[in-house]
Amino acid sequence: MEEIQHFESVTQYNAFNNNSTLHPLVSIVHLDKADPRHNRKLRYDFYTVFLKKIHCGDLRYGLANYDYEEGSLIFLAPGQVIGQYNEDYYQPQGLALVFHPDLLVGTTLGKQIDQYHFFSYQVHEALHLSESERKVIGDCFANIEYELEHAIDKHSKQLIISNIELFLNYCTRFYDRQFITRENANKGALVKFEQELNNYFTGDIAQEYGLPAVAYFADKLHMSPNYFGDLIKKETGKSAQEYIQGKLMDMAKIKMHDSEKSIQLIATELGFKYPQHFTRLFKKRIGATPNEYRKTL
């Protein structure tokens, strides 16, 4: 089995990249100080954010088009694996912000960190920065590094966490911008999503797999579930689950025009394991039970 380079602590990752450890739970890592190395799979037990040029060694990847060429941010949650092994040597470049979950224990950011969905995005769903955005991100990194180099006092932890939170909030804004500037590509994804939804209900897929899941369609569109969900929300104003349920109800209403089909058969064709679950959802979404709705046709 292919070996994975596993980093359990911030200190270990700093040493791997020839950086000093100023704080055991958080660091701004200057990757250009690292020795040249092979591409390999890497796993981190802490949050990791890379600020890199689009093409550089371990994070080379292909997108159909780029919004900007100034640089990219790639986000990894603890436990994620990135990269692949080959014999090529490369010189790491750029910066990395790394912080351990223990740093966030008992803080507001610790309670809200799951709201930053981009930590679960795939590498090809990176945030591509304009020149002005890159400067903002650079300032955020510089402020964090300033606090790490400052003598530790009672304000240090709060200021470090506040600057990390500020950085993440800027990233949320910039991702919103990226969804807008990629409107044409997003429209294409929506069209394909609609096609996949139709295929799901008009064939035997629903009966085989059950109710449609967000992850199923994200995989069909080659996206991470969180990126897919955020894209659908930005484009339609609805969550992906709400959008799927709306389509599900539309298909249910169409099927109920066939008076020879029982409610139970319709529920089965739509992927429901139990008819009562179909009845409950239909009434919640439409305001009437399937039988009540059918009487109005």
UniProtKB/TrEMBL annotation:
Which Pfam families did the record assign?
HTH_18
Instruction: Identify the SUPFAM superfamilies for this entry.
Output: Homeodomain-like (SSF46689)
Annotated InterPro entries:
Homeodomain-like_sf, HTH_AraC, Tscrpt_reg_AraC-type_HTH
Q: Where is the HTH araC/xylS-type domain?
A: 195-296
An example of a GO molecular function for this protein is: sequence-specific DNA binding
- Tell me which domain of life the UniProt entry assigns to the organism this sequence originates from: Bacteria
Keyword Transcription regulation assigned: yes
- Tell me the keywords, alphabetical order: DNA-binding, Transcription, Transcription regulation
- The yes or no answer to whether the keyword Cell membrane is present is no
The protein in question is named AraC family transcriptional regulator
